[in-house]
Amino acid sequence: MLGVDVSLFFTQVMNGIGNGAVYASLALALVLIFRTTGILNFAQGEMALYSTYLFWYFTDRGWAVLLAIAVTLVISFIGGAAIERVLIRPVEHSSPLVIVIVTIGLFLALNSIVQVQFGPDIKPNVPRFYNAHVYRPFDIQVSRDTLVLLATLGIICLLLYLLFQHTKIGLAMRAVASNSESTELSGVPVGHMLMLGWGLAAAVGALAGMLVVPALGLQASLMQGILVYSFAAAALGGFDSPVGAVVGGLIVGVAESLTTQYIHALNGITLVVPFGIILVVLMVRPQGLFGTKRVERV
Amino acid sequence: MTRRWQIISLVIAVVVLVLLLVLPHQTDSTTTLRWAQVLYIGIAAMGLNLLTGYNGQVSIGHGAFFGIGAYASALLMHNHGWQFLPTLLVSAPLCFLVGVLIGFPALRLKGLYLALVTLGLAVVFPDLTKKYVHATGGTNLVSLTREELSPPQWVPTSVSAIGRDDQWAYYVTLGAAVVLVALAVVLVRGRFGRALIAVRDHEPAAETVGINIAQVKVLAFAISALYAGIAGSCSVLVTHIANADKVGTFQLSIEFLVAVVIGGTATIVGPLLGAFIVVYLQHEISDTLPGHVGSLGPLQRVLGDPAAAPAIFGLLLILFVFVLPDGIVGGLKRLRAALARHQPRHPPPASVAPLTPT
């Protein structure tokens, strides 16, 4: 570490962890859907974008921020479940290509709908439910945003853990993920579980969007970069592993922030980092760090 | 039966080709250029179809290969004074090579994971051009003058007439399309095509009958990259620029895939039909539709908004795959099969009694 500014280094690490928490949340949303349906939801970021615009709209009407967050979460949950029921269910058994087209169509539609519905201009002042502040322990700068994002990620993880491991619904959802035909035969309403999975994913994504937007400003391209990093996070951790998504998100966030700070050759092309990560991981360990390996039989 | 359909298809192909040959003489420059656009999107989609439709490897990053082709041609013409046609001898092999390089990591990746990595290609490529290409005003936009794009001396003046430089662009693209359709037919009908399909349908089984999986997959990737690159080169003639931004490259990649899926995967003409629909649908939605919604009241504000065009396109896309999940060609095949079943009118065998437990 000779010649390296230690506090700058740790400041960048903390920034990375903050961003990483956002990537981790969206990656969790991707994993929730991938585990139950085997679908890679390209519209996940845009679903969160729509929720974030809705949140901005409520706060712009003078609603209290926490109330706006709560209402947006409920609407996002219902919206996500509705998307599964109306758009995904009819093509559930079609070729993966058709499902990709549907999620891409949804991506295009949502991105353009927010611009028509809420106006194409950037909304700069999206409020937080706390006051922005920067802590400086040992000259390391840590913004309160980072801490809130981390805490939120922790709460999401805890709630999902409780849901999946300690409730009957969670058990049913895990059963659907593991073998949906057998689950159906044993009387679990598989369709409802899939809707629940999409609803949860939409709500988790919405939360990530609402918490990251005050620092970045709201515009239609907000989630696209974030989605790319979240894909990297999910691929790194393994698409069927929630723990992997969280660890992957944090690693990708820190890697991004350190390369931006220290590797000047990558100025302007920092997106090479997440894709370098995806590529290397998938080459060395295709199932990701925490994923389950699939055995193929002839 | 099959023989009759073969003859009918051949006649249709000849008629379409003749129509395409006389098209620029019957329409204005705008329409000619739009058809040139249909053709180059069709070329790229055809290449992607070899990869996705026949070989089962999904890519949503072929906009990057398209961009490599476009930049190769544009920079050679702009900085080195090349004619257009020789630039194809650089751009096509270049894209093929890059395709091989990307194809190797793709070997380890299946289905959606591959889609993810190719998505990365589409996202990173614009950044790379922004960093390494310094053209107009230091940006990555390469803009070509009319002189740089002018056809060579040997082109008859009826095609290269002043004020109709669209015809040169159109005929070059048409020529490329015809050659590449022929190549696709040869590839698909032959040993290589069988190998592509075998690998797609059952990889371990294909391996046991002696197909070199790695070779087939990498070759499929490289050939599809070559198609996309040639399409990109042709696009420079039509649009007079080479450019790359995140939205544009992603959008192109999607357009190719959409053209493949709505046209019909694993068919020769499907991607061309799909390209026609993609180009014309988008044109109608963003240019024609806003002029026709004047009397729709509150809907007018929504449909007339240019920002709404992708929403309409996206929703139509979803609707389309709901109705025709196997694309236009797939739908036509089912229609043909239904007609064929209808004609002989065999009465249903009446002797079969319903199975009842005794």
Record keyword descriptors for this entry.
heterodimer, A: 298 residues, mainly alpha, two-stranded antiparallel sheet, 2 strands, globular, B: 358 residues, 74% helix
Q: What's a concise summary of this model?
A:
By secondary structure, chain A is mainly α.
Present the secondary structure layout:
The complex is a heterodimer of chains A (298) and B (358).
Chain A: H1 6-37, H2 44-60, H3 65-88, H4 96-118, E1 134-135, E2 142-143, H5 144-166, H6 168-178, H7 180-185, H8 190-216, H9 222-237, H10 242-262, H11 272-284
Antiparallel strand pairs in A: 1-2
Helix pairs in contact in A: 1-5, 1-8, 1-9, 1-10, 2-3, 2-4, 2-8, 2-9, 3-8, 5-6, 5-8, 6-8, 9-10, 9-11
Chain B: H1 2-26, H2 29-54, H3 62-80, H4 84-106, H5 111-132, E1 142-143, H6 146-149, H7 157-160, H8 165-189, H9 191-201, H10 203-208, H11 213-239, E2 241-242, H12 246-263, H13 270-288, H14 298-303, H15 309-323, H16 327-342
Antiparallel strand pairs in B: 1-2
What does it look like?
The complex is a heterodimer of chains A (298) and B (358). Chain A is an all-alpha fold and 298 residues long. Chain A is 71% helix and 1% strand. Chain A contains 11 helices and 2 strands, in the order H-H-H-H-E-E-H-H-H-H-H-H-H. In chain A, helix 1 (6-37) runs antiparallel to helix 10 and helix 5 runs antiparallel to helix 8 (190-216). The longest helix of chain A has 32 residues, at 6-37. Chain A is globular, with a radius of gyration of 19 Å. The mean pLDDT of chain A is 83. Chain B has 358 residues and is an all-alpha fold. Chain B is 74% helix and 1% strand. Chain B contains 16 helices and 2 strands. A two-stranded antiparallel ribbon of chain B has the order 1-2. The radius of gyration of chain B is 23 Å and the shape is globular. Classes of the chains: A mainly alpha (298), B mainly alpha (358). At the A-B interface, helix 4, helix 9 and helix 11 of A face helix 5, helix 10, helix 12 and helix 15 of B.
